[in-house]
Target: Na+/H+ antiporter NhaC family protein
Amino acid sequence: MLIKSVKPSLLLYSETKFKTHMLRKIVTILFITFLFAGQIAFSQNVIFPEVVLKNVPTDIQVHSETEIDYLILNKDTLQLNKAGDKYVMNVTLENDNIQFENTAIEYEKPLVIPGWLSLLPPLIAIILALIFKEVLSSLFIGIFIGAATIGFYGGGISGIFAAFFTVLDHYILDALLDPGHASVILFSVIIGSIVAIISKNGGMQGVVNRLIKYATNRKSGMLTAYFLGLAIFFDDYANTLVVGNTMRPITDRLKISREKLAYIVDSTAAPIAAIAFITTWIGAELTYITDGISKIEMQQGVVITESAYGIFINSLAYSFYPIFTLFFVFFLLYKQRDFGPMYKAEIKTLKEGNTADTVTNRELEEFNPVKNAKIKAYNAIIPIFIVISGTFLGLLVTGISASNSFLLENGIDLSNGTWAAIGTEGGDQVGFFRKLGIVIGNADSYVALLWSSMAGLAAAIVMTVSQRIMSLKEAMDAMIVGINTMMPAVVILILAWSLAGVTESLSTAEYLKAFFGSDFSHVWVIPALTFVLSAFIAFSTGSSWSTMALMYPLVIPLSFAVAAGDPNFSEMAILYNTIASVLAGSVLGDHCSPISDTTILSSLATSCDHIQHVRTQMPYALSVGAVALFIGVIPTAFGVPSLVAFGVGILVLYLIVHFVGKKV
Model:
């Protein structure tokens, strides 16, 4: 084997060539690395919504690691506005062509559809509910139409068939997985369980018995029914069943017409439930408000620091119909005056007495006390007190905790305690009620409601079982009865949340905002139109819940957006007014509707002819509704203080009773 010798110069050349080659590789790798790192450092991500409407201005989120002032899209220069840790730009697309000048921008291409299609889901749901007087199938079909629209533009004909399953595995499932929605469902069924247990253990009857001893004549009998209706404020269903069924024998003896009793029951149940702080309604209302505020913040690029609970409390200053109704009923009873069909019914009863047969049904029997019940008021008062006080305590605990975190993040001195530091961010000292308002505004209302309702349920069960009124099994069975009573409302809520998810995907609020346009000057119309439309939908469907489900997701973002475009109006004041108008209009329509659940229950619980109840109640409800609209909703939208509107409205209602009503 021969070994060839290699010249030293050749070895030196090869070594130099190798080093040069490696150096080039290293430089290339470093260049690519720095280039890639630069792209990461300066990367920009544009977040389009799932659907963008043609020729409709849409706010788009932009994330960037560096400060930027604009982006160039389809040769148009779009200004960027800073919103927290992101940017927002307003985009109007004529078609699905999307070309950024900077090709490194990351984005997912949205579906671009005609704007009018975004109205189809809520519009079809409303129309079907009006035609068929049934809201569950109407909501489902509305969700399907929205899913089918997205499916068609995303996958053609096959997308329409897939949309049927998308309703369940996307929209309904997403609605159920939302922690806030789950909290509302839990709170609602727990409150329903408490109502059932304290009714069957005799506690509710004990509260009633303490009040009925004051019913000695027609006037005191009516006022007893009235104040009993106010006392059972936390659930309109329980209110109607308990007050109507319990007071009927007493009012019959005092020759008070069944129509009058049905009116008292019906016109205290929903109005007091609509304005009380702790009710079976509050959870749903907070959810709608929270979802609406989230949409406003995303679309308007603003931050609303006020909590959903705080917004609800502020909206009560515009809840004219429920509050006016409670005053109007009191004036009628105190002055013993009536007009219209109710006057005729009262005169007839005074002459002939009540002859209507007693009506019983499964709902009434399920809320009757058990055989061995101890008719003691404290069996109801204590659990209810725990729910009320526990909610307030929960708001304080969660509010102080959140305030503490906020103060720490902002470097506020906490040496004197969290409470002392609250509200001092600007260097000023604030009073007790201002501090309390800040704490409740920062609170987690969902957690507070869950804590208090669970504690109240536990107290109701322990008190019932320990007194041997019911066995543990019987108490659990009563709890299931209470859960079952809430199921229709829960199903409506789930479908409503799902429909809201569809309208969000289709940018329905953006289309409505564009429809009114930036030149829309009649901002005051929004609360008034909301009140009238809500009343019409509730009248036609017979359900306040369905009306809230259909209206809230649309009008909350719309009212803020329209008011924000006019410097003559306060965005938050119009928002409060609109939120209150949905609920107030729902209650008005509910009172006038012959297919309303509470109207039907009022007739059943008082053994009143149903058509007679509707005929006698409607003139009163419409009278109060007109006063609420023209003296409350519209003037306050123009800036008239709500206290002034309440004062004038209550005076007008008193004058109506005094001059239009006739002495019975």
